[in-house]
Amino acid sequence: MSPSARSTRRALLALACSLACLSAAHAQPAPAAASPPTAKAGPAAAKPTAKPSAGKPSEGKPSEGKPSASPLSPADRAYIERIGEVEALVDDEARCKGYPDLPDNQWLAGAAQGRCSLLRKPAWSLEQIDRLLGEKDGAAELDRRFAELLDQHYRVQAQREQIFRAFKAFDASARAGETAQRWLRASPRSAYARVAVASHYQTIGEDARGISAYSQVGDAQRQDMQSQFAKALPLYDQALELEPRLSVACVQQMAIGRHLSQELWQRASERCRAIDPDSYYVVYGRILASQPNWGGSMQALREAVEDARQRAPRNPILGAVVGEAEGFPVSPISGAPMVTAELARVSKLAPSGTLMSYAARAYGHDGDHWRTFVYASQAVRFWPHNAEFRNLRATALMMLNIPGWAAIDLEQAVRDAPRDPDVRAQLIKVLTLAGRADDAIAQLQPLRALSPQEAARTRFFVCGQLAQGPQYGATAVRCVNELVAEAPEIYEATQMRAFVLLQARDPGAAAAIDAVLDWPDPDGSAHVRAAKERARMWKADLETNKAALPVR
Hints:
By secondary structure, this protein is mostly helical.
């Protein structure tokens, strides 16, 4: 057996062990849970479409034989039911605003609702902008609308920060770049068109950089990032010359400065604080740059957070960041070990989805899956398109034996991170446990395109679940046939195929059993010897009693 095959085999054996552990974990006591929606989520479904209800058996495996559920307090039950209600809302901002706040929090007034406003859709979609540019005087009308939104940013609290959101339409896509350039050609003196084009370049550069530590970014990626940033920076300067109040431009320069140059960041930061000192994005940009992991210091971080606290009465959204100074030293990004009580404490200082995700992870390590669900739900509330946070909550839901709801979270996570093999693999496992084997198998080919090894491990998991019966139909047979075709060198896969085909009375059962018996065993493995002994029993049973199912 080749080294890669041995590695895959070890991974499959580890997976088999983890499956047994997970099955045992599912049998632990759990409070009466809010059931996930019973409707199957389609390709466009991002959220539950029915209200989860408390006190009903959860979806998935039967719960017979489990210890009696631990009671939830009325407040806990109401909290969970409220989450189930608001998860039915499709709009990110409306869902966020409908969420119950974290129990026993000390958040500043208006902080959570203000933070939710940052999830509002851009004032105009790329399609609407493109269509408007096709009309007579469309570019001038677009300039007028953006100018009005900028004015409202400074005068109307309900429209605070929405000018920043408006430029989110200009992402890294080719269409976004074409639309921005079209706007600039039609309105060559437009500050807003310049920021649109620069935002497109900057997003391409940030995508090239990725999320790895800067030292781990490859030379080609780094050069691509720098070339895109170099195109964006002068456009931002020009925009500020044309419209000095357009703080979006200097905030974007601050972001580029964090990647390229402390001097650039400092210059852009000073300009932003002179233009728009109460803006969430200006203040948060300063907080990020003040963190020790970005070259700042705890003293600088405390000063930046205190500045945010003093400005919060004028812009309540700033209450979302007042926990950052106390949160940094106890969070994983500081290198500190996770202490559950400390992470829960700092989560109650401000509605920070990131801090609450750390608390959720800590509770998960402690085995407290209900609190993991509570804190992970708050993280998802404020970051609904963060695949990691969705995965975190889905894991808690699985440990609470609610695979249907977990599948909905992971389907959204896959839409948000379609090239992440770990997220897709987790979705496949959860779909299988939720009784949606056909949907799970349909996801295996996209996973194989991302990571053949992960696809093999995940298919083994799926087939292993289907091999537990009690009925062995075409889905199980197809699964093990494809598993052996993908991993013919893995003995456990060949053995599983023989068992499933035998149970299904498939015409290929005899040949599958012979493949187990003929497997070379030069090392005299006790594991292989025992498997062959079982295969001989299967073969004898198949030959003497073809009508009845064999005894496992």
